[in-house]
């Protein structure tokens, strides 16, 4: 039994705690009563058919939408009324279904921009290039280089991000999130459009982030082999409502999940 599973069974305080989440657009209730928890060091996945409300759940948790009901707590602090940038500052950082890089900037510039919260912002120190300012700039560049090496993109540091292959852009997105020093990384369909080799590399990268960096990962994904292979816990959403949750093995053998999502034989 993994330490994260033991923490969940022991009832230890979660890093992220979402309770009775709801999101309504006019007369349409896109999300209704969704609850989930992510403990430190866990990989937690949210699965469900297309249109099930998974991305809407992500948008509510990350502040892209303000939920019409329910609560989102991160490290026991309420997040459900905060704007997205405040949630990111608290340590929750996300990617989107579609790659959202600064495509006309270089690869390394994308990572430097993402570190703005950790940069030296004193105007006079910047104008006079004081030793403290130069140390700060050097540290940011070092951090960017370290993560580019980690995701296999160091040799492309000065290439425009828009000229990278699609799989490389996906890895750059994750590196851009990581330089922001998150405690929870939220990945919205990171394997979409990747070939099998790129998906295996992504699998290894996500596992290494939890193992080596100690962060938690909340994942939306349609690639079931990826989900089943790396998840500690899985939540299933169908038509905006919670359907089931459990370990990968429990979800794999859940009759309601098989009927609603995985298909019946």
Report on this structure.
This is High-affinity branched-chain amino acid ABC transporter ATP-binding protein LivG. It comes from Cobetia crustatorum. Keywords: Amino-acid transport, ATP-binding, Nucleotide-binding, Transport. This protein is of the alpha/beta class and 265 residues long. It has two domains: 1-91 and 182-264, P-loop containing nucleotide triphosphate hydrolases (Rossmann fold), CATH 3.40.50; 98-181, Rossmann fold (3-Layer(aba) Sandwich). The protein has helices spanning 3-9, 54-61, 84-90, 107-114, 123-128, 131-150, 166-179, 196-213, 224-230, 248-252, 255-262; strands at 16-25, 28-38, 43-47, 69-74, 77-78, 92-94, 184-188, 216-220, 233-238, 241-246. A hairpin with a 2-residue loop joins strand 4 (69-74) and strand 5 (77-78). The longest helix is centred in the middle third of the chain and has 20 residues, at 131-150. The protein is globular and about 55 Å long. The chain starts with a helix and ends with a helix.
